Amino acid sequence: MTLHSFYIFDRHCRCVYSREYTQGSDGGSTNRSNESDTAKLMFGMLYSLKNIASKLGDKEARNNLKSLSTGKFRLHLFETATGLRFVIVSDPAIDNLQSVLWELYSNYYVRNVAQNALSPVDFACDELLANPKFVSETDRFLSSLPVFR
């Protein structure tokens, strides 16, 4: 399996959704590591590197952080205009998942969360994204990808 986890951070720097994938019988966990140091450190690292990347480029050219690779993993980042950040953690051999992140946002998040009248517009401090339809559809979509295996 090459996809390890999927996170959504809101515009207030909080992890509102986390999904970890394991090879065990349970398939992983949802929203168990939202307040973990891992999620907080990952967001802090991505935020800092995004600021560094934007300052390294000239004023006219937009320099965006889309991916970060280490020897053990690769982070794929997609940021929306409203400040949501979608992050997938994968093996370093996976090259580019921008189209997957766009699909997760535009087809699954917008349809199941943003257009849902019962879903909050802005998540409260202790509120998590736990829409069962969103969880099941994103799981089905990610597990159907060739890079999931």
UniProtKB/TrEMBL annotation:
Q: Which UniProt keywords apply?
A: Endoplasmic reticulum, ER-Golgi transport, Golgi apparatus, Transport
Where in or outside the cell it occurs: the entry states: Endoplasmic reticulum; Golgi apparatus, cis-Golgi network
Q: Which GO terms describe its cellular component?
A: endoplasmic reticulum; Golgi apparatus; TRAPP complex
Q: What is its main location?
A: endoplasmic reticulum
Question: Entry's CDD domains?
Answer: TRAPPC1_MUM2
Enumerate the Pfam families for this protein: Sybindin (PF04099)
Q: What biological-process GO terms show up in the record?
A: endoplasmic reticulum to Golgi vesicle-mediated transport
Q: Which family does it belong to?
A: Belongs to the TRAPP small subunits family. BET5 subfamily.
Q: Could you describe the subunit structure of this protein? A: Part of the multisubunit transport protein particle (TRAPP) complex.
Record protein name field? Trafficking protein particle complex subunit
Q: Which organism is it from?
A: Pichia sorbitophila (strain ATCC MYA-4447 / BCRC 22081 / CBS 7064 / NBRC 10061 / NRRL Y-12695)
Q: Which gene encodes it?
A: Piso0_003827
